[in-house]
Amino acid sequence: DYLLHILIYACMYSVLGMGFSMMWKNRLITCGHAGFFAIGGYTSALLVTKAGFSFWLALPTAGLASALFALIIFSAALRAGPLVFFGMTLVSSFIVMEVLGTVEYFGGWEGLMNIPRPKVGSFVFLSKRSYYYLVMGLLLLNILIFYALYNSRIGRAWTAIGSSVRLAEAQGINVYKYRLAASVIACFFAGVIGAFYAHYQNMLVPNTFSFLLSIYVQMFALIGGLGYFIAGPIVGAWVMVFLPE
């Protein structure tokens, strides 16, 4: 159970690291990934506990909630440039944590407890092994989607932006549009894996989603290699999860 628990965290952090790498590919640095991770977790937890949603419906809805928040915040920040974008990611992360802690509806600083476990028919996810297979499935889905995006027209535009923003603009690439798409996609998957985290832990506490977690997400991509946009974050996350243990 202990080993499976570590493997589950390694898979979760791999998804977060891949989101950071997607932004890095577009010459963007985010320091607020923990905030979108939190939005996904709280959205799913509240939908299931207070609105009667099933976990399987709340999971993609949590991703959409994170993506929508990213769209609202970043649609203005990206027009002001990468430096303002970095500042907005940092500020938004602190705002999310403060709101979750101070608004009683979200559980306050004591957090949300007794979040229901996912289930399929009569089978309830209780064992570490069942959660491991679920998070591994989410990671594989994430890898396939990111691989498809990187090898599509969108991915080629991202590569051009990462090579030279001015040259990409000269070739007729709408840098703002492609950067916004990368940010929204990365935050969508952060929200999805946040929903998984909420139901796996069976509780949520605002302090879990601190600024330090966003720094760790950057380290996952950095240690694995910033030039490897899929394999790098996975290797970095597994090293950073297992090494302290």
What does this entry look like structurally?
By secondary structure, the protein is mainly alpha-helical. 73% of the residues lie in helices and 3% in strands. The chain has a two-stranded antiparallel sheet with strand order 1-4. Helix 1 packs parallel to helix 5 (128-150) and helix 2 packs across helix 8 (175-201). The longest helix has 27 residues, at 175-201. It starts with a helix and ends with a helix. The model has no long low-confidence stretch (mean pLDDT 93).
What layout of secondary structure does this protein have?
Layout: H1 2-25, H2 33-50, H3 55-77, H4 82-102, E1 112-113, E2 119-120, E3 123-124, H5 128-150, H6 153-163, H7 165-170, H8 175-201, E4 203-204, H9 211-224, H10 231-242
Antiparallel strand pairs: 1-4, 2-3
Helix pairs in contact: 1-5, 1-8, 1-9, 1-10, 2-3, 2-4, 2-8, 3-8, 5-8, 6-8, 9-10
Number of strands: 4
Structural class: mainly alpha
- Global Rg: 18 Å
How much of the sequence is in beta strands?
A: under 5%
**Would you identify the regions where 5 or more consecutive residues have pLDDT less than 50?**
none
Residues in helices, as a percent range: over 70%
Distance between the termini: 14 Å
Summarize the structure.
With 245 residues, the protein is mainly α. It is built from 10 helices and 4 strands. A hairpin with a 2-residue loop joins strand 2 and strand 3 (123-124).
Name a few traits of the molecule:
mainly alpha, two-stranded antiparallel ribbon, two-stranded antiparallel sheet, 73% helix, 245 residues
